[in-house]
Structure formats: structure tokens, C-alpha cells
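Summary for the lay section of the report: proteins are chains of building blocks that fold into shapes. Here we show the chain for BCCT family transporter and then a coded description of the shape we predicted for it.
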Amino acid sequence: MKKAFFSKITLNKGITIPSLIFITITGVFAGQFPNETNAVLETIKNFIFTNLHWVYVWAVTIFVGFMFYLALSKFGNIRLGNNDSQPEHSFFSWVAMLFAAGMGIGLMYFSVAEPMQHYSSDIFAGDASINKAENAQLYTFFHWGVHAWAIYGIVGLAMSYFTYRYKLPLSLRSCFYPLLKDRIQGGWGNVIDIFALCSTIFGITTTLGFGVVQINSGLVNMNIFPDTSFTYQIIIVCILVGIAILSAVTGVSKGIKILSSINIVVVVLLLLFVVAVGPTTHILGGFTTGIGNYISNFVELTFNTHAYQTDELPWFYDWTILYWAWWISWAPYVGLFIAKISKGRTIRDFVGAVLIIPALFNFIWMTVFGNSAMWIDEFVANGALSNIASNPDILMFSFLEYLPLTEITGYVVIFIITIFFITSADSGIVVMDSIATKNSTESSKLQIVLWGILLAVISLVLLNAGGLPALQSMTLITALPFSVIMLLFIVSLVKALRIDYKYYESGFSMSTNLWSSDSWKDKLNQIVTFKNRAAIDRFINTTVIEAFEELQEVLSQHGIDALIHNHQDPNRIEIEIKYDVLNNFIYGVKNESRDMPEYFIKEKNLPDADIEESFYPLTYFGDTREGYNVTYFSKNELITDVLKHYERFLKLTSEEKNVMFISSNIHRKKVKKIKQKFNT
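The coded shape description reads as follows.
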């Protein structure tokens, strides 16, 4: 056990060392000179937001448009993995983990704070035609809706696709393969991963710091802690990061999944409680109106840069542009985590779930808490919530004081924030280790622990010194170059998806259309006769084997060595031609079954089916394409069918653009060496 704990340090030096140096330097400056550092970074950030805000607007618009395009396009059925891959997590667990890693703490922090801050803002006060509450809800939806999840979705989809479809490492560098080819394994790839690792640590540290402050404020509000001093923040960080480390050590399929599933249930219960005891009619009506406003204003909001409303520009920079920058800066971390849990989904399923389900839940959540708070502020609290709108740390707890069971709901909120804190730290640790090890699957538990300790130390140092705003500014600044990187992800995806689709949709050559058989009576007899397992086994062990053996003999005359084997399975047989630099050609036949529906058995004018389960010989291939029934094939027809696929194999392998589908990682290195030798 001790040896396993300390063994297998798999950190990549080219990524880890430069990242830690940069993180340390940034952390020291932010911790020792927080005001000066923040002033410099804030100046840079303000310059970017003021002069280059249009870059964010156009980038996010393209992200949203591209995600919708993929969902509706012919590429939507492409699976994130082999064609026969299946999802590793249930739909509920998958969505729960998406939600917890993507916006958990933020939802608790801003669900009351953002609508109340918009509501109490003077920006639209002079326009009597605008309902402040309706306007506050609209912009809250805009900032937490489809646009945010499109940003996460682009990165998550790109990494999922190139990792599980192209068999590349789960890394940002892999998304550039169509553009950089093997150069992603060198210095360019390291630069990309260094950027991702630093961005992930900065983003998680900042968010966890704000989470600690809110938890501490809640505990003070519940009279558990006497104040919000640094001592109590140390206690909170040590306990929660310790639990996160323990969860990370158990693995994604255990720790994060369990915590996320528990938390989503508690979140829904709190949501239903507020709906039941709050202004129910107002909430339900407000949600309906809010969805309508969001849909009807979607395009205008997406493209609006407030160029003709100059008095609104500071508000625009501080809210919309800041949010776009914040989501983009978090995209490497959230996107990588989404990719890690999304193997086996189709692109259409991925886009639909990632884009719609979390956004819809955000709308419901923000409506229930935000609209309730604004209603209570106007009709019950006499503006008391508006007066503290600038203090989001306590706003949620102050809002709950106007509802029944205040003490219980306060504890529930603290519990939810705590679990979100743990799952964010947990998934962050997993993601950081994945980036630093180039997606190694054999990291030591000590390594996981060290990442957790690093997160805790940085958070505490900056909390104590007041350096979180500086780190937040640094995080937002990194969003500008990463938005350009994400646009290149789209270029890579389009290029790869086109090749992918053409490869798997590529049919037989024109010459195969002339192959036919005149024995139609035998074919009809086979069509109307349903087989049991023994009959198909006889077909495989006679007709199929005889066809393969005859083909093997003729291939050997052409200097081609073919192997016939069944892998110790009597219900399966295949012929294989091995290659040094290409994936092997495989054509196999296996015994498969299908249930016969009752109506089919009893119908008089259908073939005579007197068995409840019918068996048939199904083909399979080395590149995982979908097979088909060869019951009606004679020996010669089966040989001809193998030749069709062999002709297709040779045609596709002769085109260099298909190298990702016709060779493995090891073989591709041989391909590269052969090309270099040939060129010299």
C-alpha cells in the first residue's frame, strides 16, 4: 500500500515545471503586493474590455452558432469514441457532474446577487418603459444561459472528439492535430498545456476563495463562527480541500459522481421549497415571461455591443464582457472535465445536453431565487435587499430570512455550497493532474494529494493578503488569447469531422455493383427460413471457414499472409491480414440473435417463424463499422464480399488524409519514420 502511494510519479517536466514557476511568481506578487499587482492587471483588463470587447462578442457568437450547427448537421450522429462505444455514466450522473463542475458555487453566489444588482442599478432607471425586474431577469438569463455553456461545450467537445475518436491524449494540444499534426507532441503542445494548467489553477483558486468567503459568512450568519477572520477561513479550507482530496483519490466514477448526485437532489429540494413558500404565482409567471423574453431577444442580446448607448458601456464591460471572459477563462478546466466524463455520447446528444439542460436549470434557479428576492424587496422588505445588493456574501442568507424555516434553509445552503466547493476542488485536482501528466492513467495518490495541497495553499495565501482580485484579473486577461485558441478548435473540428464522415460513409467502388448471383430460388428459401443457434454455428464452421480458407490459399499465392482464427470462441471466425504501419485488415463473422415479436410469429402471411429467438451470422470489421447479415451468402459470394471490403481498405489506406483512422499511435510513429527516411 505504501509503495503504491508513493510510486508512479507521472508528471511531465516540460509542462509542470514552467507552470509551477509562473504560478509561483504570480502568486508571490499577488500575495506580497496585492494592491499594486491588482492595479496593473486591472489596467490591462480594462484596456482589453474597452477596446477589444468586440472580440469576445464575436467569439461567443461563433461558439453558439457552431454548436447549434453541429447538433442539426450530418455530423450529429458521430460518436465520441468508436462507433460501438457506450456512455460510461448514466444520464442523470453525467448531467449532475456537468452542473457541479461548471457553475455550482457561482449559482449559489449570484442567484440572488446578480438579479438584485441589476434591479437596483441606475442604468435603466431613466427609461420608464423598462420594467427593472423584467430587465434584471433577462440579463441574468443571458449571462447564465446558452452562451456560457456553448463556451464550455466547444472545449469539451473538441477534447472528447480528438481523445476518444482519434485516440489522442486528453489534452488541449490534441485539439490541434488536424492543424499541427505530430508537432503537438513537441514545444507547441507543451505551451498549450502550460496555458491550460495555469488558467485552471487561477480559475479554481479564485472561485474557491470566493466560496470560502461565502461559507464563512453563512456560518457567521448562523452563529456557528463568531466572525470572518482568517483563522476560520483556514479551518474551512483545510476541511473541505481534505475531503476533496479524498474524493479525488477514489476516482471520478466514485467521488465526484456520488457527491454531485447527492447535491443535485438537495438543490432541487431547496428549489421546490422556495417555490412553495415564496411568491409562487409570481415565480411561475415570471419564468414563463422570462423564457419568452430570452428567446425573442436572443439575437439582439448576442450581437449587442451597446455602441449607441454609451452611458451603458461601463455596465456592459462590468457584466456581459466580464462574464464572457470569465466563462472562457474557465473553459480549459470545465471543458476538460466534461470531456473526461463524456465518452460514448454522440455529438448531437452532447450538444443537446450540454447546451440546453444546464442552461434551462439555470433559468429555473435564477427565476426562483432572483424573482423571489426582487418581489420580497419591493413588497415585503421595503428595499432592504437592494441596500445590501453589493454584498453578495450574505445576500442569499438575508433573502432566506424572509421565508419560513430560516435556520434550516441556511444550513441547507451552506451544505450545498460546501458540496459544490468539494466537487469543484475535486474535479479541479483531477483536471490539473490530467494536464500535467498528459492524461496518464497511472498517477500516484501522493501526486493527487500534492495538487490538492497546492490549491489550498494558494487560496489561503491570497485570502490572507487580499490578492484574490489580482488573480481574478489575471484569469480574465488570459481569456482573450484563449478565445482565439477556441476559434482554432472549431477549424480543427470542422476539418476532422469532414474526413471522419467521408471515411465512414464511403461505400464500395463502382466495380462491386456488378457482383450478383443467379440462384434466387435458394435465396428465397433462406429468406423465409429462420435459424436456431446450431444452424448458424454450422454455417460459420462450414461455409464461412471454407470461404476463408480458400481465400487464404489464393492470397498466399500473391505473397499476402492471411490468418484465420476464432479467438477461442466457436461462435466467431475472422480472417486477418497484418501490417507493420497500418491497422490490420479484419473481416469476421459471428453468431448473433434477435427476438421474434409475437405478432410476427402468429401472422399467417409472413414467413414461417416458429421460434421466439432467431439467429443469424453478422459481419464485423477491424475499424468498428456496423456489420450486416450474411445468411444468404454462398461460399463464393462470401469470398467476393471479403474482397469488396479488402478493395475498400486498400483504396482508403492509399490516401494519407485517412492516417488517423488506418493506423494506431504506435504505427503512426513508424509512418513518420518511413516518410522521413523516404524524403532523405
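Put simply, here is one thing we learned. The beta strands are 562-565, 572-577, 585-595, 613-621.
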